[in-house]
Amino acid sequence: MKSQKAIRSGYSEPMYDDCTLELIEQQETEELIAALVEYCKDLEKQVVDLRCRVNRLTPSNKREPFPDPQSDLYEVFHHHAAYPKFKGILKQLD
């Protein structure tokens, strides 16, 4: 197994071995997925808020367009091959 420490030479930037570079790339990918999950959660909240607002503005003699404002918002991703790799992050959506 290769060392995961940065190797510094006299006048250059730190050099990383392949294992460390893979770990850095994996961390960056996980951070991106987490940011996208958080963004999705924010968008879902905005949609629910807008649907509730539309319901409140609907005349009382009309049927509310969104009787369940949270319905049909959520998507599952279990069928994607990469799901197990990011399962912990994607569980935040549940």
Any chance you could write out the topology, listing elements then pairs?
Layout: H1 18-57, H2 83-90
Polypeptide structure, described:
It contains two helices and no strands. It is elongated. 1% of the residues are buried. The protein has one domain. The protein has helices spanning 18-57, 83-90. The model has no long low-confidence stretch (mean pLDDT 85). With 94 residues, it is mainly α. The chain starts with 17 loop residues before the first helix and ends with a helix. The chain is 51% helix and 0% strand.
What share of residues are in beta strands?
under 5%
Give the low-confidence spans: none
Q: What integer value in Å does the Rg equal?
A: 23 Å
Order of helices and strands: HH
Task: Please tell me what the overall shape is.
Answer: elongated
- Overall mean pLDDT: 85
Largest sheet: none
Q: Termini, distance in Å? A: 37 Å
Total domain units: 1
**Helix coverage percent of residues?**
40-55%
Number of helices: 2
Structure summary, number of beta strands: 0
Structural class by helix and strand composition: mainly alpha
